[in-house]
Amino acid sequence: SNLEKFGVTSLTSLSLNVNKLKSLRTIGSLKKLERLSLRDNKVVSLKGMKQMQSLVELLVDVNSLTSLRTLATSCWFNLTTFSANTNRIACLPQRLSSHLPSLCVLNLYQNNISEVGPKTFEN
Length: 123
Prior knowledge:
This protein is of the alpha/beta class. The protein has helices at residues 2-5, 69-73, 96-99; strands at 13-15, 35-37, 57-59, 81-83, 105-107. The model has no long low-confidence stretch (mean pLDDT 90).
């Protein structure tokens, strides 16, 4: 990938705040990344990030996310902080906490969430 050409595949922290990113496919190859901040971009999906199993902190505030389905199908066992404030998220996936067992901080203010299902935080 392009990232391998630049020798940055060993990055553990990356901030790409205030840009115009829409897709995260290239970033998804950074398997050692522990902290990723993508605040104030144009991200519409977290697809392409499933292999980033070292993530501890993921900040995607002020983007265009409508779904957290990728979180519910990924196994980010180390993720402790997830922040997706000011997006367009309408609902939370069932059993979200079973896919994110280490999650301590979940910030979702200023979205379109109208209901939190009874099984959202079940394991």
